[in-house]
Amino acid sequence: MLMLRIGTLSLFCFLAATGMQAQVGKTFPKLSGETLDGVALTMPDAGKGKYTLVGMAHSSDAEQDLQTWIDPIYQKYIAKSGLMDAAEDVNVYFIPMFSGSSLPFYDKSKNKMKETTQKDLQGHVIFYKGEITSYKTELSIEKKDTPYIYLLDPQGKVVYTTNGNWTEAKMDAIDDAIK
Q1: CB neighbours of 16 closer than 8 A, spacing ≥ 6?
Q2: What's the CATH class of domain 5-178?
Q3: Contact 107, 34 (CB under 8 A)
């Protein structure tokens, strides 16, 4: 299994519960950061033109559930193992968020993660630091200890959301939304 560790924080993941469905149809809010390989990216612009799967977390408590998403997402959309059709060519970004009391850990966590993350995954990890209150509101992030996942259409609008650990049913829902 692939592990993405950020010191006391870990990557956060994705998508929807009943309250999150309110996000469907809205454009994903602008969020800028830097990938582990040093490229500045702004969402949703970085994903425009293809479906984009975004996983977000802002606490170490979200780590266990996030870890359940990493290998299936990596295998299907990054390593592209197994049979794939053109509709499954999807951008993937994991976004650890640092704000408030976690800001002092930003540089150390980013450096540690860069050392421990395989090269082909580094461009898929966007480190964000700054305020998160507006993102919590705009993306209906209600639980700090839960990863959130958002599927964006090629124009950057949210078409599916979920949260918590990976399940086959959630992955099937993502696949259905892409097709």
Answers
A1: 23, 24, 149, 160, 161, 162, 163
A2: alpha beta
A3: no
Per-residue pLDDT of the chain (179 residues; tens, 9 = 90+): 344 444 333 333 333 333 456 588 899 999 999 999 999 999 999 999 999 999 998 887 777 687 788 889 988 888 865 554 444 689 999 998 898 888 888 899 899 989 988 899 899 999 999 998 999 889 988 888 899 999 999 999 999 999 999 999 999 999 999 98
94 closest CA partner among 64, 58, 61: 58
Rounded Cα–Cα distance for residues 1 and 135 (Å)? 29
* Pairing between β-strand 31-35 and β-strand 126-129 as defined by DSSP bridges: antiparallel
DSSP 112-140: HHHHHS-HHHHTTBEEEES--HHHHHHTT
How far is Cα 83 from Cα 86, in angstroms, rounded to an integer?
Answer: 10
| b (16+ CB within 10 A) / e for 45-76 | ebbeeebbbbbbbbbbbbbebbbbbbebbbeb
Domain ranges for the chain: 5-178
CA distance 59 to 97: 8
Q: Whole-angstrom Cα distance, residue 56 to residue 59?
A: 10
